[in-house]
Amino acid sequence: MSSVALGLGPGRSLPGPLAGAVRFLRSLASRPVGLVGFVGVVFFVLLAFVGPLLVPLQETSDVTAVYLTPSTAHPLGTDFRGRDVLNQIVWGGRDILAVAFLAATFSTIIAVALGAVAASIGGRVDTIIVGISDVFLTVPHLIVLIVVAAILRPTGFIALAVVLAGLQWSGLLRPVRAQVLSLREREYVEAARSLDLGLFHIIFREMLPNMRSYIVIHFILAMTGAIYAVTGIVFLGLVPISGQSWAIMLYFAQAQGAIFFRDSFWYILSPILAIALFQLSLVSLVSALEDIFNPRLRNG
Amino acid sequence: MNVLSVRDLSIDYLTSHGPVHAVRDVSFDIAAGETVAIIGESGSGKTTVAISLVRLSPRSARITNGEILYTNAGTTIDVRSLDEEELRRYRWNDCAMVFQAALSAFNPVITIWEQFLDTGRAHGMRDRHTVRERAGELLDLVHLDPRRVLASYPHELSGGMRQRVLIAMSLLLQPQVIILDEPTTALDILTQRSIIDLLRTLREKLGFAMIFISHDLSIAAELADRMITMYAGTVVERAPVRDLFYRPRHPYSVGLLRAVPRVSGALGAVSSIPGQPPDLRRLRPGCTYQPRCPFAVNECGDREPDLVPVDTPAHDARCIRWEAVAKSVGDTSVDTGTAVGG
Amino acid sequence: MTTTPADTKLAAQQFPFGGSARRARRMLGQTWGHPVARALIKALVTIYVATSITFLLIRLLPGSPVEIKIDELTKDGAMSYAEAAALASTLFSIDLSAPIHEQYISFLAATARGDLGHSFLSQGTTVSSIILAVLPWTLFSVGVGSLLSFSAGIFLGLLAAYRRNSVLDHVLSTGGSIISSVPNYLLALLIVLILGVQLRWVPMTQMRGSVTPGIQPGLSLAFIGDVFFHAALPISVYFLTTIGHWILSMKSATIGALDEDYVTVARARGLGESRIRTAYVGRNAVLPLVTQFAIHMGFIVGGAVLIEQIFVYQGVGLRLLTAVGQRDYPVMQGILLMTTIAVVVANLIADLLYSRLDPRIGRAGGATG
Questions:
Q1: Could you say which of B88, B104, B108 has the minimum Cβ distance to residue C272?
Q2: Helix axes A123-138, A94-121, angle to 10 degrees
Q3: By CB distance 3.0 to 4.6 Å, which of B83, B271, B338, B341 could disulfide with B218?
């Protein structure tokens, strides 16, 4: 048996990526919740990254048009400086999504690397890594984040994503480790080990490909956690990552007292709905993915 | 006198691909104090029948036809017609069931004593001391130290001990019938032995009737007075244990007997029956065993044979070729190498 | 992987250092094998690590608060570097002239004594006293909210599992997953926006603070009522944003437990449904949730910062934000430490509770045979 064949695992032929995508969409289509989630995620990603290319940012303030209620000119009304709310919604997703994506990527990498090492080596290394992750898990993340942000003042995306990932990996470690532990017992890993292919090879060529679905789920969950934390601290005004974001809209709404102004209802509701609906889409997608990848879990 | 009488019992499992006819027209009687073994491969419907006797079938199961008649002190009731509360009182008090999965039969978070107490209280044993005394006697009977075992949590007992505790508990309310569903399958060979011996002694002392479900003929034969062979959800042969063992008249029973490992024989002597049981969703007309049967002739495919008396009135087989089978196996040609008890 | 008693025994056999050493080793092994001891050690290690990280943050990182403070004090020439360093030392409770490892040790010792330094802003006020004034309010509101949501969640989850695929199940499951995926501070904003401002059902401004100013503290009905009146909004948010998780977890745990053999056997034993539901299904299903509860505590305490800011509830979260605004580093550091300890203690309680509830844990290395 060649190592290439081993890498695919038992009974898994490699379809073209397109065939895989079609199959994936087909299994999603039979799950309305998952489909809604998927459509929601696609919508928000398009809104955040393609939207700004189509709609120019409107920055001029208009003191004669503050806190306008929704109209055809301003479908979501205007803010405290008379700027169009819809325009800000379109522009306000990019940074949040980008930071969340980066933070989720970093924390997944850390968790998968440490989890795989812990489970593969075992013994004292395992005990120490799990212990560290437990400590990180216990500490209230948002408070650490606030204190760290107050001291280090991260201003760029990447700095913020790194700080976030430095805390978040702890939540992913145990599940990843458990998954690696169970994979370790599978025959193709056994085979690779008996061929003496080395730890690196076993982790990256045998285990990771078989954990793809699992990693995707945890990546999305990490994104929801990152979005919560990022929007949270931006809302508190602790890290202005840039001039436009849904969280900054909320910060201003709170700081300007717009929240207590009855006409500004849509102005405040819009970013709330944007964040909440995006989170909801991610969570629905995850529950459908879990269902697709591991149907036993739910029917049990 | 029969304590339990099953009449034309049929059970379907409802699946997304249509009903599975797991049990079809099963009838048998059990007299007081008698032991009947039901044997067959997995999927033959034997466990489905057993569980339906205490009405604990999974939600997807439907009893589509038949009666389960239970007689106690001259009164006969149909277990199918009992309501929830009557059913609750019937279970364990009249008919106890010792499950295959004795290892996980106990609630892991409460002590064995509490589980005895729960059982007693559910059936009106108000006084703790009565339950304690009776549990102590029964645990003594199954050769366990009551004080230690009652204070233990299930995980603190070995598999064999847990199976004995369950057997002891099944006797708590002196039921007339005890159903044992593969009670020794999960245990090692020595523990199996001691459980079988234990059951035989207990039956002699207490005189309950037993329904013994097994795929292992040699174990079943040691305890049973009569045996029932099930295949594809229906009874294919029923006979006193010696008749079935030495004079099987259904080709499937012959196959099962051949599959019994001989104590003296080499490994090669174990023969399992080639082929697969039929798809119980789409049964073809004719004998269900025909595709696997070495005795099959064309007529076997016409209609499903009836259960007809062969040799003696107490011996029935569902096979039109039983005479050919008889000629082929003769009288004692199926040498299992195992002593037949009972 | 944790050390089992068997491992320890093996180790003792491999290293026969004479009777006393072996006995000590065995004792250590038994202590580690004991779940309560293990939970305690875990808690202490976590607090130690959290303290060290705090030290690292304020002392070792470039641009650390200590240096910023010294810069501030020396900038306008009002103080010499030595004077400024001395003042900073008292403020942070750190002797800056000592070598770094001694600073670390004295920092640990001070923390162990409960000495968290002094606030920059209100001179002479200890950080401990500041935190002690606000922490109870946070622990109260978070604790009440979480416990209510946990109890209600397991009840509803059990119900949903028993009535699987009923309308009630669909409402609870769908509602639960929607409400648990909405970030808690957005829910708080929605409450302010809709109930407080648009509908004016809730008197937002009167509910601010942890108590009405001037009310006489005590065990009077009026005071307790006032405490709950002010905490009502934070408690509702903690309750609503976590209940979905408990409903869904309990539902799936219950469905799992219903499939267990011991439940079928309990039915065969003729036990009543209510006994089966509580002692057989419920008790086993709730076990894994107890450990999840501990992990949730850290998350909720963290989230309290946002919630307290929105409702202007004077807990530790709001105080942290004030400290951040004032760059009052000792207070920030103290809050970080104290909230961590609070969560560690909550974890510890959950661990102890778990070992009480699950005999398989509580009696490690129990009798078998």
A1: B88
A2: 150
A3: B338
The nearest CA of chain B is from the CA of C267 a distance in Å of 8
Residue C369 has pLDDT above 60, yes or no: no
Chain C residue with CA closest to B107: the answer is C262
Q: What is the pLDDT of residue C23?
A: 64
More confident residue, A13 or C195: C195
Whole-angstrom CA distances from C84 to A190, C67, C96, C330 are 64, 10, 11, 16
Cut 0.90: pTM above it: no
Can you state the angle between helices C100-113 and C35-55, rounded to 10 degrees?
130
Regarding chains B and A, contact by 3 or more CB pairs under 8 A is answered as no
Range of B97-106, B298-307, C39-48, C137-146 with top mean pLDDT? C137-146
Tell whether C60 is within 8 A of chain B (Cβ). Answer: no
Burial label for C66, CB within 10 Å (0-12, 13-18, 19+), is buried
What's the pLDDT score for residue B38? 93
Instruction: Kindly list the partner chains of chain A, i.e. chains with 3 or more CB atom pairs below 8 Å.
Output: C
Q: Residue A215: is its pLDDT beyond 60?
A: yes
**Runs of H (alpha helix) within chain B:** 46-53, 84-90, 112-122, 128-141, 146-151, 159-170, 189-206, 217-223, 241-246, 251-258, 322-329
Neighbours of C367 (CB within 10 A): 11
Do A83 and A59 form a contact (C-beta atoms < 8 A)? yes
CB interface of B with C, residues 129-188, below 8 Å = 148, 152-153, 155-158, 161, 166, 169
Q: At what angle do helices C283-311 and C127-162 cross, to 10 degrees?
A: 130
User: For residues B242, B246, B249 and B254, what is the CA-based torsion angle, rounded to 10 degrees?
Assistant: 120
Strands B234-240 and B226-231: antiparallel
Inter-chain touch B97–C367, beta carbons under 8 Å: no
**Neighbouring C-beta atoms of residue C285, cutoff 10 Å:** 24
Q: How far is B179 from chain C (nearest CA, A)?
A: 11
Is A282 in Cβ contact with C181 (below 8 Å)? Answer: yes
Q: How many B×C Cβ pairs under 8 Å? A: 88
Greatest pairwise CA separation for chain A in angstroms: 76
Span C79-115, pLDDT tens digits: 777 777 777 777 666 666 667 777 788 888 888 887 7
Question: Which pLDDT tens digit goes with each residue over A167-202?
Answer: 888 888 888 888 877 777 666 666 666 666 666 666
Residue C278 contacts B, CB cutoff 8 Å: no
Inter-residue contact B134 to B172 (CB < 8 Å): yes
pLDDT at B11: 92
Q: Which amino acid is at B66?
A: G
A127-155 core/surface letters (b: 16 or more CB in 10 A; e: else): eebbebbbbbbbbbbbbbbbbbbbbbebe
Name the nearest CA neighbour of C338 among C135, C91, C144, C87. C135
Q: B28 pairs with which residues across the strands?
A: B6
Long-range interactions of C193-196: CB distance < 8 A, separation 24+: C193/A259, C193/A265, C193/A268, C193/A269, C193/A272, C196/A260
Running DSSP on this structure, what letter comes out for residue A206? I
Interacting residues of C206 by C-beta distance below 8 A, sequence separation 6+: C212
- Over residues C126-152, the pLDDT tens digits come to 888 888 888 888 989 998 999 999 999
| Structure token pair of residue C81 | 């570097």
- B56 lies within 8 A of chain C by CB: yes
| CA-wise closest residue to C291 among C210, C367, C354 | C354
Indicate the pLDDT class of residue B333, thresholds 50, 70 and 90: very low
Write phi, then psi, for B97 (nearest 5 degrees).
Answer: -130, 125
* H-run or E-run covering C138: helix C127-162
Q: Which residues pair with B36 in a beta bridge?
A: B211, B226
pLDDT in tens, B223-274: 899 999 999 889 999 999 988 888 889 989 888 887 765 444 444 334 567 7
